């Protein structure tokens, strides 16, 4: 297998983008990534686009070829990848595989979602389609409800406190307050979180990510060709992609996602690294409690210790292992199909030493993307040269 | 008291909430219907206050993950009697199947 590098990244601002369509968003992020890589569209061998609900929310299928045509990529193979909120983590993974296998030299990968033009009820319903339609979603379960059940269980099983969970949002909103591309750029206090509206007990409004528009992209290249385009390539040294049950009742442990654990183990093994080797990570904080379960699933802390890790500063911007220095999904927003590549965008910026909230001497970074009720996860480990 | 209909593998005796051709645990071809007691305890639960559009008007409603006495884990709607408050570990009992799925009642 050949080694693979990231040579260019792009990301639109996340948030409510009136008058900017889904294709425009994707084109904007891709163009930025191509410019960053100093690669012309004619050099791209293949294109993968992660997207979850474009057919439902903006009635647009054929998304990958439409975006590729607008970019002038020529008659190359273009594929839309759907894996709920992990769609673009999977797109990235498949781009890596195409190059590693030797089939392609340069691949463009992107993720996009346009959500704010639809009513909130329609968005909730569309997102719920990532769950199991025949069982839990038929019952009327939602994703805030799913994570409400997980949060209550985590609190019961490990003594995790409501305040510890809320501190995830305090930390991430503080990190995101300096990120000009974040949907929410204002900090939030613990009181504001605990007094915000109950959505699905014990999940409150500020435990949730906002509904956002946005796109992110990366240009991937065979590592031995990277020097032709950039003096600062970032190498992909571990790529894990795993699945798990798509329902709560089929999870053996309601506080752990098997897919995240398996994807992480694969990525660590491939990279020859342990969790303690990671300098900075972007993890899938679709709800406050999801960051706590993620750092446990990824092995950064022992099982059940995710709550104290937030309050004792372990995951803080200047802590032992900064988690979500970009502000995470809680601050940046969660245009679901774009999220996985927005995480890659931040990790690459960190490893180049040019991030907004730069983690000092970051050499190895990790990105963790999760889709559905733990149905699918990708974990990528990257390093600077 | 209504029994709760589930499925059991003739090979490994594994229990499943829904029917399937082959047992996904041991691969045996004999997964057959079985009647369970319908008694269990709450593993966790939530109250849905912001429902998908199609469930508007039913809200708020409770959904629980319940571990049945026979060892099967299921997800169901939960009815909490007036004046009661649910807690993890509380017993619950199967009431009926509604168009959206099974309903259990806190006891």
Question: What are the SSEs and their pairings?
Answer:
The complex is a heterodimer of chains A (385) and B (107).
Chain A: E1 4-11, H1 22-37, E2 46-50, H2 54-57, H3 63-71, E3 78-81, H4 87-100, E4 106-113, H5 120-128, H6 143-158, H7 162-176, H8 190-195, E5 198-200, E6 203-204, E7 214-222, E8 234-243, H9 258-271, E9 280-282, H10 288-297, H11 306-311, H12 328-332, H13 339-352, E10 364-371, E11 376-384
Parallel strand pairs in A: 2-3, 2-4, 9-10
Antiparallel strand pairs in A: 1-7, 1-8, 4-7, 5-6, 8-11, 10-11
Helix pairs in contact in A: 1-3, 4-13, 7-10
Chain B: E1 4-9, E2 15-16, E3 31-36, E4 39-48, E5 61-68, E6 73-79, E7 91-98, E8 101-106
Parallel strand pairs in B: 6-8
Antiparallel strand pairs in B: 1-2, 1-3, 4-5, 4-7, 5-6, 7-8
Mind describing the biggest β-sheet of chain A?
9 strands, mixed
The overall pLDDT of chain B, averaged over residues, is: 95
In the predicted model, the low-confidence regions of chain B spanning at least 5 consecutive residues are none
The greatest interface here is: A-B, 34 and 29 residues
Number of strands of chain B: 8
Provide the helix percentage of chain B: under 10%
Approximate strand percentage of chain B: over 45%
Number of strands of chain A: 11
Features:
heterodimer; A: 385 residues; alpha/beta; 9-stranded mixed sheet; two-stranded antiparallel sheet; 18% strand; globular; B: 107 residues; mainly beta
Tell me what you see in this structure.
The complex is a heterodimer of chains A (385) and B (107). Chain A has helices spanning 22-37, 54-57, 63-71, 87-100, 120-128, 143-158, 162-176, 190-195, 258-271, 288-297, 306-311, 328-332, 339-352, and strands spanning 4-11, 46-50, 78-81, 106-113, 198-200, 203-204, 214-222, 234-243, 280-282, 364-371, 376-384. Chain A is of the alpha/beta class. In chain A, the strands form two sheets. In chain A, strands 3-2-4-7-1-8-11-10-9 form a nine-stranded mixed β-sheet, with helices on both faces. Chain A has a two-stranded antiparallel sheet with strand order 5-6. The radius of gyration of chain A is 19 Å and the shape is globular. The two termini of chain A are 19 Å apart. By secondary structure, chain B is mainly β. In chain B, 0% of the residues lie in helices and 50% in strands. Chain B has strands spanning 4-9, 15-16, 31-36, 39-48, 61-68, 73-79, 91-98, 101-106. At the A-B interface, helix 5, helix 6 and strand 5 of A face strand 4, strand 5 and strand 6 of B.
């Amino acid at each position: 297998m050949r080694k693979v590098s990231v040579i260019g990244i792009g990301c639109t601002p996340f948030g409510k983008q009136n008058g900017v369509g889904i294709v425009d968003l994707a084109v904007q992020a891709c163009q930025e990534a191509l410019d960053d890589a100093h690669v012309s569209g004619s050099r791209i061998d293949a294109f993968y686009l992660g997207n979850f609900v474009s057919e439902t929310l903006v009635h647009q299928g054929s998304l990958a070829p439409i975006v590729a045509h607008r970019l002038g990529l020529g008659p190359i193979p273009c594929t839309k990848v759907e894996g709920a909120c992990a769609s673009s983590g999977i797109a990235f993974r498949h781009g890596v595989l195409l190059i590693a296998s030797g089939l392609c030299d340069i691949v463009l990968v992107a993720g996009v979602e346009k959500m704010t033009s639809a009513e909130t009820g329609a968005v909730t319903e569309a997102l719920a389609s990532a769950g199991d339609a025949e069982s839990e979603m038929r019952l009327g379960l939602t994703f805030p409800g799913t994570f409400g059940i997980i949060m209550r269980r985590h609190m019961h099983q490990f003594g995790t406190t409501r305040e510890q969970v809320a501190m995830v949002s305090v930390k991430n909103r503080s990190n995101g307050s300096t990120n000009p591309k974040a949907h929410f750029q204002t900090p939030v206090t613990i009181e504001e979180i605990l007094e915000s509206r109950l959505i699905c007990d014990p999940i409150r409004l500020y435990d949730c990510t906002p509904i956002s528009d946005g796109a992110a992209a990366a240009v991937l290249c065979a590592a031995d060709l990277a020097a032709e385009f950039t003096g600062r390539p970032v190498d992909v040294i571990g790529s894990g992609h795993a699945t798990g049950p798509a329902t709560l009742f089929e999870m053996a442990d309601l506080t752990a996602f098997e897919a995240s654990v398996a994807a992480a183990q694969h990525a660590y093994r491939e990279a020859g690294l342990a969790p303690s080797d990671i300098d900075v990570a972007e993890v899938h904080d679709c709800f406050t409690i999801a960051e706590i379960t993620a750092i446990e699933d990824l092995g950064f802390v022992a099982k059940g210790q995710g709550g104290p890790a937030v309050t004792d500063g372990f995951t803080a911007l200047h802590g032992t292992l900064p988690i979500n220095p970009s502000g995470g999904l809680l601050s940046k927003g969660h245009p679901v199909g774009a999220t996985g590549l927005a995480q890659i965008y931040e990790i690459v910026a960190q490893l180049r030493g040019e991030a907004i909230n730069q983690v000092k001497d970051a050499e190895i970074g990790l990105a963790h993307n999760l889709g559905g009720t733990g149905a699918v996860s990708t974990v990528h480990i990257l390093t600077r040269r | 008291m209504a029994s709760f209909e589930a499925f059991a593998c003739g090979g490994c005796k594994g229990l499943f909430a829904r029917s399937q051709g082959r047992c996904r645990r041991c691969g045996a071809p004999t997964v057959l219907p079985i009647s369970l007691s319908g008694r269990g305890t709450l593993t966790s639960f939530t109250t849905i206050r912001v429902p998908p559009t199609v469930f508007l008007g039913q809200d708020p409603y409770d959904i629980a993950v319940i571990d049945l006495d026979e060892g099967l884990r299921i997800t169901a709607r939960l009815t909490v009697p007036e004046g009661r408050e649910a807690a993890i570990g509380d017993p619950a009992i199967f009431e009926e199947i509604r168009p959206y799925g099974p309903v259990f009642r806190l006891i």
